[in-house]
Amino acid sequence: MDQGSHTYDIVILDDQGPRVVLEKSYSTRFVKERPEVTLHAINGFDVKAVVLPTGFGTVLKRVEQIKEEDYLEISLKKDEPSNSSLAKVIKLFKEAKIEAYLLPSVKHLNTVPKHRKLNRFDLGTSDKVCSAALGIYTQVTRRRITPQETCFVLAELGSAFNAFVTVENGMIVDGVGGTNCWLGMAARGSVDGEVAAYLGKFSKSDAYKGGALYLFTENAELTPEELGDAARNGSQRAKMLADAYIEGVLRDISGSLGATGAKPKDIFLSGRVSGIPYFFNRISNQLERSLGIGVSRMENFGSYVKEGAIGAAIIANGLVGGEFREIVESLKIKDASGSVFDDVYLKQD
């Protein structure tokens, strides 16, 4: 399962083939109002394991091991964290006694050096770990290599946020979360400290505003597809915002490669924006020209759901010893430790 800014996706994967035996996509708003649809969706299937959406993550846990304090870490919502939409789904699966797992985010992974985690909550939420699993599967399949030989950058270009994960030797070694990136579609990305100080206060909802779509019309209902169409059809403002967005993607990828020294074999684009030809073609052409690395989308087994949901199914399979166990072992998810609050300076009043 994968909870995104706009859609909540569910996929059931049979490792024979592998093949998709169920795919569902609901609006995130609908699932927030009726979280029980997540349980209803898998009724009638002999599901061996489920990976639930876990937001900012926790160390690997079975759902029955979750504690009240974990909900704050997962949601980073100080007010009633155990009442968040993520918490409601998790509680349903706990009550149903289904073999379900909560995953770490990038920050929990010991494969990411400590110095890259300082003063950061968001190096990539748990669904980015899932997407990285799909990236490993994709490279293993296409290049006929082992999970431990994989090396790539994943750029997840969502309807609201961007996020970037660098994988080297089959392990995540760096991540840039959506609130630390450059300009996103709906989200403003990394916040200038002077802007935050001038505003006087900054809320979670503010993080979802100020992106390319807002700067074009101040209308959150505008879609990334419409922005791409406007830029392609000659709107100078849309073209300027598309330039800023695309340049931000290049900056985030180049920054991670410069810091890690990784030599990726591929760059994978995922997320809603990667499916828009105007953005995919411009981004891939500039990356291939500047970095000399091939750009493509990942394998999806013919599914229409988000890559994070497919990757979650791969991890669920691997956690219970299925066909994809080597991918899970390579990611070292079971070795994750600590808390998203570690190594962050928080002013105490």
Structure overview:
- The protein has helices spanning 28-33, 37-41, 68-75, 85-96, 126-143, 193-199, 204-207, 212-217, 224-232, 236-260, 277-291, 307-319, 325-331; strands spanning 2-3, 7-14, 19-27, 50-51, 61-62, 100-102, 151-157, 162-168, 171-176, 266-270, 295-296.
- It has 349 residues and is an alpha/beta fold.
- It has one domain (2-335): Nucleotidyltransferase, domain 5 (2-Layer Sandwich).
- It has a five-stranded mixed β-sheet with strand order 9-8-7-10-11, sandwiched between helices. The protein has a three-stranded antiparallel β-sheet with strand order 1-2-3.
- Helix 11 (277-291) links the parallel strand 10 and strand 11.
- Helix 5 (126-143) packs across helix 12.
- It starts with a strand and ends in an 18-residue tail after the last helix.
Give me the count of strands: 11
By CATH, the topology is Nucleotidyltransferase, domain 5
By helix and strand content, what is the structural category? alpha/beta
- What is the spatial order of strands in the main beta sheet? 9-8-7-10-11
For the record, what is the CATH homologous superfamily label?
ATPase, nucleotide binding domain
CATH architecture: 2-Layer Sandwich
Distance between the termini: 38 Å
Number of helices, counting only DSSP H or I runs of 4 residues or more: 13
Mean pLDDT: 93
Strand content: 15-25%
Large-scale geometry: globular
CATH class: Alpha Beta
| Overall structural domain count | 1
**Residue runs with pLDDT of under 50 for 5 or more positions:** none
SSE string, helix = H, strand = E?
EEEHHEEHHEHEEEHHHHHEHEHH
Main sheet characteristics: 5 strands, mixed
What is the rounded Rg?
A: 19 Å
Helix content: 25-40%
